[in-house]
Specification:
429 residues; mainly alpha; 62% helix; globular
Length: 429
C-alpha cells in the first residue's frame, strides 16, 4: 500500500464528506469561471469586450445565466420518452463528477489536525476509472437523442457515439507509454514517477495524441460535430430546456476540467512545481498546499488551450474528423508504443544512454510527423462522364433521340360570370 493510500484509508467520515463537497464546489465554480473566461478571452481575440455588465468585469454573468436557466419553463416534447428523457442529463453529468475523484490535487497536508492527502480516492486502477466514466457519459448523450423523439437530436447522438468510440481508443493508447514508464495505473503513482522529469518531455507523441483526443472526447470545437448547428440545429440537446439543458452544459465543462486535470497529472507532473521552482529553499515550494496551486495553474493552462482552439479553428467535416482519429492518431499511437518498448528494452540492457535516447526519439518523431503530413492522400478516380454532342458551332445540343414530355393539363379556369360576381361582392364590401 502506498503512502497516499495509507493516508486516505485513515480518513474519518467527516473528512471524506468534506472532500466530496469541496470537489463538487470546485468543479461547479470552475465551470462558472471557465464559461466567463471563455467569453472574455474569445471577445478579446475578436476585438470586442465580452460580458462586462454583471458584476466586476462581468464575472457574475455565468451565475446570471444559470439562474435564468433554472427559472425557464421546462418543456417536454409530446413524442419524448418521459423517464429516459429525464434521466439522460443526469447520466451525462454524474460520470463527469465521479471521474475527478481519483485525481491527486496535492501532496500530504493537514486539515483540521488530520493528516491526509489532497485526493478523494486512491485506486490501483485509477486511469481505468477515468476511461470508464468517460465511456458511461456518452450514454447520456445517446439516450437524450433517442428519447427526444426528433430526427436532429437522434443524428447528433449517433455522431457522438461514433466520436467517443473513435477518440477514446486513441486516448487509451496514449496512456500505454505513460503506464510503461510509471509502472502503475495509479494516478498518484504516475505523479510520483514524474518527480525527476515530466512525461510531456519524455513521451512527446503520447502527449500530442492525448491533446487531440481530449478535445474530441469532450465534443469541443473544432470537434463539436454532435451539436453542429449548421446541419443539426443544436444536436442531441435540441429538445431540452431549463435545468435539463443546464445539466448538459455543466457536464461538458466539468469534462473539460477533468481531462485538463488528467493531462496535468499524466504529462505535466501533477501537483509538482515546475523545475526551476523546485530548487528554491530545498524544494519547499513542492510541499504542502503549494501543490494545489501548481495543479490549478496547469489545469487552467489546458482550459485556455480549449478556448484558444475554439477561437482559432473552424469546425471540421465529419469525414475529416473520423479520418484523423482512425487513420492518424490510432496508427501513430501503435507505432509509438512499439518504439517506446524497444527503447526501454535497450535502456534496461544499458545499450542506449539518455542522450542517445533523446536523439533517437527526436529523429523518430520527426520521421513520423513527416510521414503524416508530407505523404499525399490517394484521390479516388473520377468516373468518366460522357461528353455532350456538339453542333457545328461548338455549342452543346440536346440528344437527337430526346423525347419531350407532354404538357400537363391546365387547371380549370373560373367562369367569367363567377369572376364578375366575386368582383362585385368585393366592391360592395
Amino acid at each position: 500500500m502506498t503512502r497516499t493510500a495509507e493516508l486516505l484509508a485513515d480518513d474519518p467520515i467527516w473528512l471524506v464528506l468534506l472532500k466530496v463537497v469541496a470537489i463538487f464546489a470546485f468543479l461547479v465554480l470552475m465551470t462558472l469561471l471557465t464559461i466567463w473566461a471563455e467569453r472574455r478571452v474569445i471577445g478579446r481575440m475578436q476585438h470586442r469586450p465580452g460580458p462586462n455588465r454583471a458584476g466586476p468585469f462581468g464575472i457574475l454573468q455565468s451565475l446570471a445565466d444559470g439562474l435564468k436557466l433554472a427559472f425557464k419553463e421546462d418543456i417536454r416534447p409530446v413524442l419524448a420518452d418521459k423517464w429516459v428523457y429525464f434521466l439522460a442529463p443526469v447520466i451525462s453529468a454524474t460520470p463527469a463528477l465521479v471521474s475527478f475523484s481519483v485525481i491527486p490535487i496535492g501532496p500530504e497536508v493537514t486539515i483540521f489536525g488530520e493528516r491526509t492527502a489532497l485526493q478523494l480516492v486512491e485506486l490501483p486502477v485509477g486511469l481505468l476509472v477515468v476511461l470508464a466514466s468517460a465511456s458511461i457519459g456518452v450514454y447520456g448523450i445517446v439516450l437524450a437523442g433517442w428519447s427526444s423523439g426528433s430526427p436532429y437530436p437522434l443524428l447528433g447522438s449517433l455522431r457522438s457515439a461514433a466520436q467517443v468510440i473513435s477518440y477514446e481508443i486513441a486516448m487509451g493508447l496514449s496512456f500505454v507509454a505513460v503506464i510503461m514508464y510509471a509502472g502503475t495505473l495509479s494516478t498518484s503513482g504516475i505523479v510520483e514517477a514524474q518527480a525527476n522529469g515530466w512525461f510531456a518531455l519524455i513521451l512527446p507523441l503520447s502527449f500530442l495524441v492525448y491533446l487531440v483526443s481530449m478535445v474530441g472526447e469532450t465534443n469541443r470545437a473544432p470537434f463539436d460535430l454532435p451539436e453542429a448547428e449548421s446541419e443539426l440545429v443544436g444536436g442531441f440537446h435540441t429538445e431540452y430546456s431549463s435545468l435539463k439543458f443546464a445539466l448538459f452544459f455543466l457536464a461538458e465543462y466539468i469534462n473539460m476540467v477533468t481531462v485538463s486535470a488528467l493531462a496535468s497529472t499524466l504529462f505535466l507532473g501533477g501537483w509538482h512545481a515546475p523545475w526551476p521552482l523546485t530548487l528554491i529553499g530545498g524544494g519547499v515550494l513542492d510541499t504542502g498546499w503549494w501543490g494545489a496551486l501548481w495543479f490549478l495553474l496547469k489545469t487552467v493552462l489546458f482550459l485556455f488551450f480549449f478556448v484558444w482552439l475554439r477561437a482559432t479553428l473552424p469546425r471540421l467535416r465529419y469525414d475529416q474528423f473520423m479520418n484523423l482519429g482512425w487513420k492518424v492518431l490510432v496508427p501513430l499511437s501503435l507505432v509509438w508504443i512499439v518504439v517506446v518498448t524497444v527503447i526501454r528494452a535497450l535502456r534496461n540492457e544499458q545499450a542506449l544512454t539518455s542522450t542517445q535516447f533523446l536523439i533517437v526519439g527526436g529523429v523518430i518523431l520527426a520521421v513520423l510527423v513527416a510521414a503524416a503530413f508530407l505523404i499525399p492522400e490517394r484521390k479516388p478516380a473520377k468516373p468518366e462522364e460522357p461528353e455532350a454532342p456538339l453542333a457545328g458551332s461548338g455549342f452543346p445540343v440536346p440528344p437527337l433521340d430526346l423525347q419531350v414530355p407532354p404538357t400537363p393539363p391546365r387547371r380549370h379556369e373560373v367562369p367569367s360570370g363567377a369572376d364578375d360576381a366575386s368582383k362585385e361582392g368585393a366592391g360592395s364590401v
